[in-house]
Structure formats: C-alpha cells, structure tokens
C-alpha cells in the first residue's frame, strides 16, 4: 500500500471543495476551523502499471493550508503534517509521499526531531518527499518543450527561481550536466545558499529575480511561494518557456500571453486510467491520468518494492537517483506532461 499526503492551495479552494471531499460542514468555516481539523483519508484507489502490476493507495488530506504560514499559525501547520504522517503510518501504508508544502514544512521546522506523535513513533523510512521524481520530470519537460517553442537549449539562458531549494538545486545540476544549457541564472533570496550552490555547480550566475527574468529563454519556477506572483510580460523575452512546478503555482493562474508558453511543471500523465476523485479536486485537466510527480514517486517505490525514504533531507538529490527514478517512471507508464 502506498500513500499520498496532500493539501489544498488556499482557504478559498478548501471551502469550495469541502463538499466534494465528503465534509460539507467544513464549507463555511474559516482558518481557525481548518487549524483544528484532523487528517482524513479521503480516497482509496488502485493503480495499474504499464507492466500489468496493480497496487493500492490512499490519499490523506492533511488539512494544512498555505494561509497558516502567512498568518504565523506555525504550530498548527507543523501539527497538520505530523498528524497526517502518523495517520498514514497507523493505516498500514508502506510508503507515503509528502506532497507540496508537507515536505517543506517538515524540513523548515526540523520535524525529524519530533519522532513521537501521541503513542506512535514515526518511522521516517516510510516517507518520501517525492522531489527526485519531480526534479526529473521538470527537467524532461524543459528538454522536450523548449525545441517546440523554437528554443535551442545549448544556446539558451535558463533562470531557476527557487534554485537553492531541494527541487531547484537538482534541476540546476541536471540542466548543467545533462541538458547542456548555455547559461544558468540562480534566483532565490538567501545569498549565502546561492553562493554555495554557485560554488558547487561551478556554473551559472546569481541574480535577483527582476534582473534574471528579462534575460531568460526558459524559466523554471520552483520557489516555495504561498501565492502566485504577477509577472510583467513586457519584461520577458519572446519566445519564452515557463515551467511552473510550484504548488501552489508560482505564477498567477490568470497569466496568459501568446509569446510565452507556460507549462504545468512537475506533472505526469499515466498511460492507464486511475479510478480516483482526488485529482478532480486539485484541478488537473485530465484527472483520471494526470498527477503530481511527487505522488507518482510513492507509486513507483511501491511498484519497485523500494519501501524506503528515497527522497529525503534537502539538496541530496543526485543525477544517479534521478536516472533511477526516471527509468522506473518510464517502465511503469508515466510520462511528463507536455501540453
Ligand atoms: P524548498 O523549500 O526546498 O525550496 C524553496 C526554494 O524557493 C528555495 O530556493 C527558496 O530560497 C526559494 N524561495 C522561497 N521564497 C522565495 C521568494 N519569495 N523569492 C525567490 N525565491 C524564493 O522547496 P521544494 O524544492 O521542496 O519545493 C519547491 C516548490 O515545488 C513548492 O512550491 C512545492 O510545493 C512544489 N512541489 C511540487 C511538486 C510536484 O509534484 N509538482 C512536488 C513537491 C513540491 P530562499 O528561501 O532563499 O528564497
């Protein structure tokens, strides 16, 4: 059995889908209510691999909302993640992906130091961030979509917003070593971490976002932003490919311009239908087949019987691990979203 710990993108989103999740009494409630709501298993489904193998999974809604961070409800946010992990473990799940902000909260607030949740000792080997597969899929999306937009990666400048993050740093390593991009622009806020990454890569330039965006042929968005940014289209190159891997999305969902191709980053499409409800709720275009790459990682680990925290900690993702999870991804019938 594999598991997925997920959350919704905003209080507004949560209110609008509470009924679909089976909790109509949550629909009119404010942030306080969500802060005290316990985790729930809201979906139970089967997934068939392209090899014919079938596995079972459960989706755990943590009831975390990004507004909890913006409103300094840190204790509630951390409790949501720990309680959801304990709930997954108690329900006999072998390997669970910590989707979206779940792994970010786990890392930022050092939750590895809190192993005990009530009467249960968390076994961290049963969890994965899913970030290795996410980084791999984003890189494959860049490599496949750039030529379609008339962009030759070997001559291109790629800006990575959120470069020092777990996903961002892996993407930078791959774009340098495997995609052979001409120039890499490293964007984040903390200068020390940016300088360390620049030294590790021995490649690229550290630049503030407003200086990097006008220079970029491709922008990879993997910053942990609680809300989408408004990007000034007049300051962007055309054509420009934007691969937005953020959850919630890094760029405002209403952003639309003919010269700028925006691709939903870190999303995979399965070759067979999955009979579940949860991807309707997070607004996938083809909910029976499309899903977050981090969730697919827990499926891949279950298919491969690799019940271990494959992606764990920050900035530990190697090219070898990306190759390994990438091969499993192809074998079991997942492909990067390209439209
Ligand atoms: P990390 O916390 O490891 O990294 C976040 C990065 O964003 C850091 O480089 C951070 O650097 C940067 N950042 C944060 N705020 C800003 C800002 N205001 N301006 C510029 N940079 C900023 O996160 P992950 O790598 O784990 O996740 C990144 C994103 O990917 C998140 O939105 C997450 O929800 C999403 N995600 C998507 C998945 C999928 O399957 N599609 C799976 C997992 C995650 P600094 O603080 O120095 O600015």
From TrEMBL:
Q: Which reaction does it catalyse?
A: a long-chain fatty aldehyde + holo-[ACP] + NAD(+) = a long-chain fatty acyl-[ACP] + NADH + H(+); a long-chain fatty aldehyde + holo-[ACP] + NADP(+) = a long-chain fatty acyl-[ACP] + NADPH + H(+)
The cross-references to Pfam families, in alphabetical order and at most eight, read: Shikimate_DH
Source species, domain of life: Bacteria
SUPFAM superfamilies in the record: NAD(P)-binding Rossmann-fold domains (SSF51735)
UniProt entry keywords in alphabetical sequence: NAD, Oxidoreductase
Q: Which cofactor does it need?
A: a divalent metal cation
Supply the EC number(s): 1.2.1.80
Quinate/shikimate 5-dehydrogenase/glutamyl-tRNA reductase domain residues: 148-254
Identify the enzyme class. oxidoreductase
Q: Name one GO molecular function term.
A: oxidoreductase activity
InterPro entries the UniProt entry points to: AAR, NAD(P)-bd_dom_sf, Shikm_DH/Glu-tRNA_Rdtase
Q: What does this protein do?
A: Catalyzes the NADP-dependent reduction of long-chain acyl-ACP to the corresponding fatty aldehyde. Involved in the biosynthesis of alkanes, mainly heptadecane and pentadecane, by producing the fatty aldehydes used by aldehyde decarbonylase.
For this protein, the record's NCBIfam families field holds: AcACP_reductase
**Family, per entry:** Belongs to the short-chain dehydrogenases/reductases (SDR) family.
**What's the protein name?**
Long-chain acyl-[acyl-carrier-protein] reductase
Annotated organism of origin: Phormidesmis priestleyi
